[in-house]
What does this fold into?
Amino acid sequence: WASLLQDIAPASGWHSAKDRCDKSLTLQEYPPKSNGKVSFLPPNLYAQWRARNLAASMLQEETDASVPAERLLQKLWQHQRLRRDQLRTLDGKRLWVLHPGFWNQEAGPDFRNAVLQFDLEKPRSGDVEIDLHSQGWRAHGHDRNPAYENVILHVVWDGKSETASLLPSLPLKPYLDAPVAELMLSLDQEPSKQMPDPLHGQCSGPLRDVSQAIWTELLGQAARVRLQQKAAQFEARARQAGWEQALWEGLLGALGYKHNVWPMRRVAELLPVLQLEQSGTGDSIHAWQARLLGVSNLLPADLTRTRKQMDEYIRGIWDRWWRERDQFAEILLPRALWRFNGLRPANHPQRRLALAAHWLANDGLVDRLLQWFSRPVPESALLDSLLEILQVEQDGFWSWHWTFRSARMARPQPLLGPQRATDLAVNVVLPWFWMRAGAGKNAELQSITEHRYFAWPPSEDNSVLRLARQRLLGGLNARALRTAAAQQGLLQIVRDFCDHSNAVCDRCPFPDLVRALPREPH
It folds into this structure.
């Protein structure tokens, strides 16, 4: 196992000293078992469909071949596919994107309520406008339009300082984290609007005529595309910061869910600065909790004065943070960066950062994950075996409270449940390791990872999956998607096709592609 890991791209970054493995371990043979089924589809059929659909959409855009379409620039900014720790505006200022803002599909600036920090100035909240060229600011009349008064950054493809607007301007071209062609294939199929209304789509009829075996195989191919896309993002980040740092950013970002992905990811980006001298595990847990909650600006300002245990914990955290706050004053996150509306108590960022503190203090999470791939695990035990690694021992405060202000629960609750562990598996752990093994040209380890990905039990149902089943599959029961990979495959089809059409599937090629599928011989 140790020699196999040496074939994987070496780690670098703040945690590299801990990126090691137990040399006494050996990799036991664990090849994915052949299911004995006949394949009815070409192995890359779905990827070919997807590429053809992308090419067709590109042909519909009239743009200079040397400059990407403005929509791609918007998606580059939305997903921050940039070398985020190297950004500089055209006038030479360092730029930190604490939150890229919310994509505005109506008139006005492209992104609303972004949070940016220039050099070591205080973070600012405002809008972001994206144009192909620096001259676009005046050419489009933004300088005279009151709707653009709150714009604090002008994002362009390329530019020179002498042609920039009076606003701070950021060129994207020098800071991409991957080649343009790769980013176009990855991002151009990302949704730019909500999925159409829950009517039956035009593909629901043709899909009824497709055998279960072929449909399952097609879902698997779409799921593999999704795995590869997520893995490619980890590879792009690992080129900048190392494999282990890329993993931490993925884990914390996933703990932020849809509401707080960006601030959680920002906290992860700060880990090289926040690292502390290790002491006893229990002491380190509280030290990490103080540091993470302090720099995130999520510590309460006052004691409750009515709940003794809660006040003791808050006072203990503050006693640590008071001594360190000035040291980290320049990187404190604005509290306005966090979103709490519509948030389940279990997903509150205070509790998720407390969980991350346990991972960091125990000084071995990455090693345990690497070792997890070194031993055979029955398919029925995949989730429990990962949960055993990610779950932590009972926390004296956070096992009993959802937030700093919530009442004490009658029974302790785990800091991480099975559904969240599944989300971390399919969105972070498995894509990260699949790409890391690929970077080391280790096909055997990639095969093990794929086997676990396709065998993983399903995650929670959600609104996107329900809508997809309604439109594509005529309201098929959630239980029909028996694995997380099947769910991922359906989500990929939605992203690649449904999100780029309207309620009546106008000009969507997917129905015709389904009709052309081979029929399973009887």
User: Anything to note?
Assistant: The mean pLDDT is 84. The first strand starts at residue 95 and ends at 99.
